[in-house]
Amino acid sequence: MSDHASDFVLQAINFDTLEGWKDDDPSGLFEVMRSCRRITDVKPYRTGSLGLSSEDLLPLLAAAEDFTPSSPASARAFFETHCRPFLISRKDGNSGFVTAFYEPDIDVSERPDEIFRFPFYRRPDDLIDLDDANRPIELDKAYAFGRLHDGRVAAYPDRRAIDQGFLEGRGLEIAWAKSKVDVFFVHVQGAARLRYKDGRIGRITYAAKAGHVFSAIGKLLIDRGEIDRAEISMQAIRAWLARNPERVDEVLWHNRSYIFFREAPVADPQAGPIAAAKVPLLAGRSLAVDRMIHTFGFPFFIHAKSLTHLDPGRPFSRLMLALDTGSAIVGPARGDIFTGSGDTAGESAGTVRNDADFAILIPNAAAGRFD
């Protein structure tokens, strides 16, 4: 484990101690793992600071290649045979935390008019990836992107500057939406299905960001006393913005982070969006994690006792695969649950803000390094 992972420890546990494990049915994960195998054969996933690599994951993916579960119990037995569970314990004593995300459906136009005025932008050609070799000393290490202009690298213009026209006239627009707030929340989700006027369905997914740190507008509204902390949700934030149209820009510009998109194929409209791990997300089984710590493709068992509306009548307890990441997903036991596409999925996702226990399943050959 690297120094970057020094704020938490992995505690070896037994499957019998995973609350909710015996009631879970992870059968749907095998097709996704086969997709991960095909991706990693071409290009391994980036190794997070925990030190687990795609090579460590390979024995599990290889075993899944020809395995078809005959029952929920057989699916669980597969993971019990090939992995060992480790509880992720934060040294500060705080529990893990989950939120949720979804793929919105947005009405758009391929050309702007008096109604469809708010664009989704492709990645600009002056936006460059930053690392320790080319990042200017005045930019914090959190900046993974910057602007190369006239031979100099600097911070890219932020949400306010872009909303006020910085990118106009460069032909970067993918489509135009009717609402600035809708565009903002697509930025938060990182993907969307686009419904054009002629009935055509498109899809956009994350390509890059301007580089500025994500700042939650929900926290801003709580700190200002506009929304009670106990009532905060995506729905509550949207309702506040609808009641206060004259303050929308001020609040949205608080989050300087700005997301750029790429168009994605829609081979199967029922499949989830292809996110950071380059495989389609599976609703209810895909987790966004901090990719600086964790490596895509690894299984996580999430138990959130207070989260009961995703599995009505019982706590959320599911095995999931780490397949995505996000600006707000920071920390070893922090996850974002993908709930699916469309309005119903959005209603489910918008109210998820729950403490949770995180256990990572490590393939047997690599697990010995963490005893």
Which key terms come to mind for this protein?
6-stranded mixed barrel, Barwin-like endoglucanases, 2 domains, alpha+beta, Ribosomal Protein L25, Chain P
The value of Rg in angstroms is: 21 Å
By CATH's scheme, which homologous superfamily of the largest domain applies? RlpA-like domain
Strand content: 25-35%
Mean pLDDT across all amino acids: 94
GO molecular function: hydrolase activity, hydrolyzing O-glycosyl compounds; peptidoglycan lytic transglycosylase activity
Domain Lytic transglycosylase MltA: 105-262
InterPro entries: 3D_dom, MltA, MltA_B, RlpA-like_sf
Protein name: peptidoglycan lytic exotransglycosylase
Description:
By secondary structure, this protein is of the alpha+beta class. It has two domains: about 5-100 and about 275-370, Barwin-like endoglucanases (Beta Barrel); about 105-265, Ribosomal Protein L25, Chain P. About 25% of the residues lie in helices and about 30% in strands. It is built from ten helices and 17 strands. Helix 1 (about 30-40) crosses helix 2 (about 55-65).
